[in-house]
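Section 3.1 - Work completed
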Amino acid sequence: MKAEIITIGDEILIGQIIDTNSAWIAEQFNQSGIEIYQITSVHDNHQHILEALKKAEEKVDLVIMTGGLGPTKDDITKYALCDYFNTKLVFHQPTFEHIKTRFTKLNIDVNKLNRDQALVPESCTVLFNKAGTAPGLWFEKKDTYFVSLPGVPFEMKYLVESEILPRMRATGKVNAIYHKTVLTQGLPESMLAMKLEEWEDSLPQNIKLAYLPSPMAVRLRLSATGNNENDLRVLVEAEIEKLQKIIPDYIYGYNSETMTEVIGQMLKNKGKTLAVAESCTGGYISHLITSVPGCSDFYKGSVTAYSNDIKEKIIGVKSSTLIKYGAVSEDVAKEMAIGAMQVLNADFALATTGIAGPGGGTSEKPVGTVWLAVASKNGVTAQKYVFGDNRERNISRSSQTALQMLRRVVLKELQ
C-alpha cells in the first residue's frame, strides 16, 4: 500500500514551524507496512488543496492530510474537502457534546467558533478525537482512502494510533514489513558501496538497501516486504550474517544503538572503566558518553585540555614533547591518553588533539588534521586522520572515529 502525506499551512512553507508531523507519520506507517510515496506541503489555499488531492489520488492508495481543521478563518480544509467530495457540512452532535464537556472541565465558555468545529462533511466517517476538539475525517473514493487530521501533533498522533492504523490493517491491503539498520563507521559511503557491490547485487528482490551517511557513521538500512513478518526477519538476518563477514571491523551496532552505548555495555560487562582527554573535540566525546543512561558505571571523567598549559599541568604531557613535535602530533596524543588513564585511574583512556578549523592549519598540518589515541594497561596506540575544513564535521567525525578506535581496542582486550 502506498500513501501520500499532505501538510496544510502557510506556517510550514514560510519556515515558521518545522513539519515534524510528516516524519512521525512516515515512521509509523513504514513500521506498519505502508510505503510513503510522497510528502507534499501546500498553502492555506482552497484551489491548492484541491490540486494536491487530485494528484495524490492518481498515485496512491491512502492520502493523509494534516492541518486546517481549527476554528479560525484560515482553517479551510473542511470546505475544500466538501468541494472535492461533492458534499456539504452538517452538524455532528456527538462532536459538539465532546467539545462542551472538554470546555466545561476547563471552565471555558463555548463560543460560535468552537461550535463550528462540530461541522463535518456529510459523506465522511467521523473519527472521535479524544485528545482534542477537531475530529478526524475519513473518506473513501473508489479505491483510495482519504483521511484529514488535526495539525496539533499530540492530537494527530492519537488519531493515527487509535483510528488510522487499525483501520488500515483491517483492510487486508497492508503488507508485512521488516527493517533492520546496520551501523558502520570508518568507511566513506562510496568505498563502502564498492566493498558491498557483489553482496548488494545478490540481495533478494523483496529486500531494499539504503545508504544513510552522516559525519558520524554510515547506516545501512535493509527493508524487506512480504506476507509474513517473521519470514522477513529470518531473510534479513541471513543477509546481515553475510554482511558481517565482508566488513566485520566496520560494523559497531544495529538500529538505534550508539557507539557509546555499545562501548559502555562492553565495559560494564567486564567491570572496566574509561577516561577521556579532549583537545580539538572540546568535550564532545564526553557529551556523547554522558548521554548514555548509567554511564557512571564505567565512565570516570574527562579533561578538556584545550591549551598546552592544561595538557602539561593536568594530564602530564611533557613540555619537551610539545616543543619538539607540536600539540597536534602522535607523541602528544599518546601522552594525553596515558596521562588521562593515570590521573583518572581508569582501565582505558581516549585522547584527541588536532586542528578543527577553520583557521590554524599549515601546509604540514592542514585544517582537519587530527591525532587520536587509545591507552590501556597493555599499551597505547595512535592514528592520524585528515578530515576536511568544516569545523563542526571535524569535531563529530573525530569523536566518532576515536570511539571506533576505542571499541576495537576494548573488543580485542576483553574478548
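Second construct:
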Amino acid sequence: MEMNEMNELYEISARRVRNVSTKYIRYLYTAIDWENRLISLRGARGTGKTTLILQRLKKAFPNTQQALYLSLDHLWLKTHPVYDAIETHVQHGGTHVFLDEVHYQEDWAKLIKSIYDDFPMLHIVYTGSSLLKIQQAQADLSRRQAEYDLPGLSFREYLEMEGIGHFQPVSLEDMLKNHVEYAMRITEEISILKYFHTYLGSGYYPFYREVHSGYEERIQQVINQILESDYPSVENVSYGTIQKMKKMLMILSESAPQTPNMSGLYRELETDRNQGLKMLKVLSEAKLLALLSSESASLKNMSRPEKIYCDNPNIMYALCPDAETGCIRETFFLNQMRSAGFKVTYPQNGDFLVEGKDLFEVGGKGKTFAQIRDLPDSHLAVDDTEIGQGHRIPLWMAGMLY
C-alpha cells in the first residue's frame, strides 16, 4: 500500500485524538502497563474503552504519526486490508497501533497474531466490546497479551468526574473494618446521599454527560447495538433469535431479582432449554444481565441461576422506570462488587456472599440482622445512611471500591 493512501487514516486518527478530552481519565489508565507489546482492553459497550485509548495517544504521542488509531468498523477498511495498512504504517516509522472494535474484523484473532508475529517492534493495543468472542479466542493470544477489563463508572469515579470530590478507593477489608472513619471524612465534605441517588439513575456509563435528558434512550440504543450488531458480528445468529433475546431481557428485567419459571419462559419464547441457556449466557457476557448462583452451581450444567438481575441500576431504570427500590439497591451492590473484581455468589442465608466469606444483607435504613443473626462475618449494607456503625455499613460505600 502506498503511503498517500494512508493519509485519510492518519487524518482520522489525528482528529479523534485532538477532540478527546483528558480532563478526566479513568482509574484503569494508570493500572495498564503500556510497555507490553500486546494489550487487550475488554468491557461492555459504552464504558469508555475508545476514550481511554485515545487519551493514551494524546498523552504519549503528541503531534506524531508514530502511533495510529484504527476503528475496525470504519468504511475505509471495507476496501483496504487492515494488515496492509499496518504494514505501511510500520514501514514508515510507526511503532504503535491502537485497534478499536476488533470484533468487526473477520478472523480478528488471526489478524492480531499475524501482526504481533510479523512486526516484532510494533506495540499493539486492541479493544473489543464483545466479551464472548474475545474469551473464546484467548487460546491463541493469552500467552502473548496483557488483558484488562473496563467496567462502567464506580460511584467514586462518578464523584470525581462531576468535580464533587476526589476520594481514594477503599479496600474491602477497610470497608468492613474502618467504614465509619472513611464515611466521616467524606460526609464532612459533601452530602453523599444526594449524589448517590443521582448516580443510581444516570451515572454508570460515562456517556451520561453527553446526552442529559436522553440518557435512558441512549442505553436502549446501546442494548440494540449489542444485540443487533455486536453479537451477529461474532456468531451466526438469526433475526428471530435476536428478537427472542430482546424479549427475554425485558421479561427478566421486569421480574428481577426473582427468577421466573424458566421452563415457562422458554415456552413463551418458543425455544428449548439449551437455546434458552445460551441466550441467557450471552446476555450475561454482554453485561446486560447479572446471574447470581450458589458456590456449587455452574452456568454450564444448571437449569437456572438462583437470581437474575440487570447488570447495573442504570439499565434497570432504562428498562423498568418503576423498578422497586429494593431491587435497585441489590443490583447496585452486586454490580459494584463484581466490577471491583470480587467473586459474589448466592448464600443459603442473606443476599450475597463475597469472596466465599463475607455475608451481606442489603436493605433500607430500617434493615435489621433478623435474617442473618448469629452468622459469622455477616454485615448489613443499608441505604439512606451516611455513616454506619459496627456491621451496619452504608450501601453507597460499595461504590468506593474502585
